[in-house]
Design goal:
By secondary structure, this protein is of the alpha/beta class. Helix content is 40%, strand content 16%. The chain has helices at residues 18-30, 41-51, 59-70, 106-113, 120-130, 146-157, 176-191, and strands at residues 5-12, 33-39, 77-79, 98-104, 135-139, 161-162. β5, α6 and β6 (161-162) form a beta-alpha-beta unit. It catalyses: dimethylallyl phosphate + FMNH2 = prenylated FMNH2 + phosphate.
Length: 206
């Protein structure tokens, strides 16, 4: 089996902004990382609504579909179901992995902030926090209520990176893909993964 760079876990939940999460998976694959994927039931509905595509829910079929979409190599993407408690992300003794929840619904935000762990996505985030691993959460909601803000403050104090899907415009975007790449680039920065999606501040466009 091909040797990939360390795994990154990507979870998509039911907030708007599925494009961010799927683009992140594609970029990680191209960067030769192994990618562990979880997509909630609500996220499947959002993907079908926002992108006019339908991804299978069954993990093996989903893995095949994402590999075909991203051009990844066999074994590079692993998908896990809602209650796949034998997945490596379900335990601190499993293989370490940085985790990104993108997009992150406010329901998931609440569950992680309170340690609910009712499904594999929430449990994987709980593991990342307790093991002091990198966890990036990308909420896409507006406006934020005091409840949302309190949960984000709680998570930030625990070392979680809260990175709202709020693209900037100083890179002079000319299409929606440029706005998507702005957020994906900021996520990659937090993961310490090199990229050329968006020039850094002070750098010229290529």
């Amino acid at each position: 089996m091909a040797a990939f760079k360390p795994p990154v876990t990507v979870a998509l939940t039911g907030a708007s902004g599925a494009q961010y999460g799927l683009r992140l998976i594609d970029v990680l694959v191209k960067a030769q990382h192994e990618v562990w994927v979880m997509i909630s039931k609500a996220a499947h509905m959002v993907i079908a609504t926002e992108m006019d595509i339908s991804l299978p829910a069954q993990p093996q079929r989903l893995t095949k579909a994402l590999l075909e979409r991203s051009g990844g190599a066999d074994g590079q993407i692993r998908c896990f179901g809602r209650e796949d408690w034998m997945a490596p992300v379900a335990s601190g003794s499993g293989a370490p992995s940085a985790m990104v929840i993108c997009p992150c619904s406010t329901g998931t935000l609440s569950a992680v902030a309170t340690g609910a762990s009712n499904n594999l996505i929430e449990r994987a985030a709980d593991v990342a926090i307790k093991e002091r691993r990198t966890l990036v959460m990308v909420p896409r909601e507006t406006p934020f209520s005091p409840i949302h803000l309190e949960h984000m403050l709680t998570l930030s104090r625990l070392g979680v990176v809260v990175l709202p899907a709020a693209p900037g415009f100083y890179h002079q975007p000319t299409c929606i893909d440029d706005l998507i790449d702005f957020i994906v680039a900021r996520i990659l920065n937090q993961l310490g993964i090199a990229h050329a999606l968006v020039p850094r501040w002070g750098e010229e466009k290529p």
